[in-house]
Amino acid sequence: MKSKEELFKILVKQKNDYGKKGLLPQNLPYELVKKLLIEFEAIQNEEMDIPASMLLITILMLKGEVDMLNVPKASLSIAPEELMDCFSNYGVAIVIEDARRQGKMSITKDSIPTLENIFDSKRSISFEP
């Protein structure tokens, strides 16, 4: 696996090349999906601090117009409860995307997350046989 710095550059390139849509799980290169999955699981198991994660960076870029190349000047206000909901919703989408790419599950086309529903706790996901 590439270093965290290399993966961060790929993440920023995704955002710069494709806009926020490039940060949706289905549009990320698989090595980024794997890194975000590892981080999500580590955070869930309290083995990693949230501020040190690429997952946080990804969520912040999706939630606002945060320029991650100029972090000291970037600002975004988000309530702690909303941030934790974002972690959960995006994390679940990453878990599903990883399983989908490995052929372990299939979801309907309507279940693929969009910019409008990626953080929606009530988003419906339909699985196919």
Provide a count of the helices: 4
Helix/strand-derived class? mainly alpha
Count of spatially separate domains: 1
Strand order in the sheet with the most strands: 1-2
Number of strands: 2
What's the order of the H and E elements? HHHHEE
Mean pLDDT: 88
Uncertain stretches of 5 or more adjacent residues: none
User: Could you tell me how far the N terminus lies from the C terminus, measured between alpha carbons in angstroms?
Assistant: 31 Å
Radius of gyration: 14 Å
Helix content: 40-55%
Give the strand content: under 5%
Q: What summary fits the major beta sheet?
A: 2 strands, antiparallel
What overall geometry do the principal axes of the alpha carbons give?
A: globular
What does this 3D model show about the protein?
The protein is mostly helical and 129 residues long. The protein has one domain (4-128). It is 48% helix and 3% strand. It is built from four helices and two strands, in the order H-H-H-H-E-E. It has a two-stranded antiparallel ribbon. It is globular and about 40 Å long. The model has no long low-confidence stretch (mean pLDDT 88).
